[in-house]
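Thread: flavin mononucleotide complex, take 2
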Amino acid sequence: MAFSDYQYEIYLNGLVGTPPPYSTSVAELERVARERLDPGPYWYVAGSAGTGATERANREAFDRRRIVPRMLRDVPVRDLGVELFGRTYPAPLALAPIGVQSIVHPDGELATARAAASLGIPTVLSTAASHTLEEVAEADGPRWYQLYWPHDDDVTLSLLDRAAKNGYDTLVVTLDTWTLAWRPHDLDHAYLPFLRGTGLAIPLSDPVFRAKLARPVEEDLDAAIMQWVPMFNGRPHTWDRLALLRDNWDGPIVLKGIQHVDDALRAADAGMDGVVVSNHGGRQIDGATASLDALPAIAAAVGDRLTVLFDSGIRTGSDIVKALALGARAVLLGRPYVWGLAAGGEEGVRHVVRGLLAELDLTLGLAGYSRLADLDPSALEEP
Ligand SMILES: Cc1cc2nc3c(=O)[nH]c(=O)nc-3n(C[C@H](O)[C@H](O)[C@H](O)COP(=O)(O)O)c2cc1C
Ligand SMILES: O=C(O)C(=O)c1ccccc1
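Output below.
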């Protein structure tokens, strides 16, 4: 089945009086989520660092680039399949690690993982998830694990061990959020979900972490939270420390949050398999470069040494075309699927992902491309 079939499905259902259950516009889904959610959770997801300059720059960098379509080319069935780290996936898309998803829907990461699994798309489970690694693995789709890297090696190794045992085959190490940035919306609502225990399902269920607590989690949740927060938050790790992860993880390792060419090259030198060119959706450094602007130079510099993934600002199928044309092998989808989750749990996430991939498929064909591999900067206007 082609991803673009979702377009027919929606039109045909409309003919028999069943309009799509949720909007096909991400902006509209976000508007609905804003109406439904309390301001704290809504702004936690929607908001970003400082004045929002980098969040806007992320979008501006997409809007500034334009696809130049080619005509009269044979584009029968587009193949959106992609190989990442030796595995084949149906589309160049994974669901970005997003913590504390139960603040928008009680099923949280379970719903997200089930939706992704039903489409064969990888989900990247955050260390700050509201469900455990073991629970989310039951969705039984392709799964990657995102590490917020504790400053306690015993706990780190326990998390890696649990991830590997539960079938998470790719490790994504997020480097840009070793402490939370200045986020005015969250500060003004005094809203930090994990300080209430939300988003701590993974550490609180970790046997090695639990064994370090003076009193059981069940008896003193606050003390457990206060022990976890400084363990992963407050200071960065350094390049030399990557050896610990490389020595204790058999599968591919991807560094997330890379924006500088030299850091990407250093990741390759450290034996990493990939990078996610990302600025965390503008949630960390206000005034940082747009992630899409960082992408071309990184992709050119690393060549075949690393698999280059991209996130921060993907909202439409044509955004994916642009990111791939500028050198990404695949992209991570962030906030849009959270708006789907808020609207309709698993169904809502599936709707958003199917819509995005239908739009990617149609855009690719209309632009005259049948294979993702044929996309290069010549698909876009000169900057
Ligand atoms: C509410 C929220 C929570 C997030 N939590 C995590 C996380 O736990 N781990 C992580 O690596 N990135 C996290 N991110 C960043 C995303 O993985 C991704 O980089 C970002 O959402 C991309 O930007 P976009 O949503 O604007 O496209 C989070 C983003 C949001 C919006
Ligand atoms: O809010 C975030 O961007 C994020 O990455 C995070 C960090 C800690 C806990 C939950 C989410």
